[in-house]
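Researcher:
Attend to token order:
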Amino acid sequence: MTADAMFDPLRPTILLIEDDRDICEIVEQILVEEGYAVVTACNGAEGLAHLRSGAPPPFVIVLDLMLPVMDAWQFRAEQTSDPLIARIPVVIFSANPKVGQHAESLGAAAVVRKPPNLDELLSTLERFAPAPPASEPPEV
């Protein structure tokens, strides 16, 4: 689990739970460049451990369906039964052809299909996490 962008109250935090390292690194890099703080976990158990660690809660969780150790269904069962983290919205992030049906059964707030369209990903996340502050223009 990584927290590459240290907690900063001016940077909305997103928890990204994704087991494919390449996808995880690319999405994390894009979100950090857009001004978000990103915490990554490679399975649902790591994601839950972070949520229960006492760290400030993320504004939104981006969750892959198929994960080792603890998949999206197990993660959501744990999350929704814990009143401290139950209300954090979840965006399902998957290439599964039935992702819409699965997201509905999981009570997810939204869906982003893999491979993600950057504009769709960012506009979906902005529904749950405030837009990060504009970065300072470079000095000339």
The chain has one domain: 13-126. The first helix runs from residue 21 to 33. The radius of gyration is 14 Å. The helical segments are 21-33, 44-51, 72-80, 99-106, 118-126.
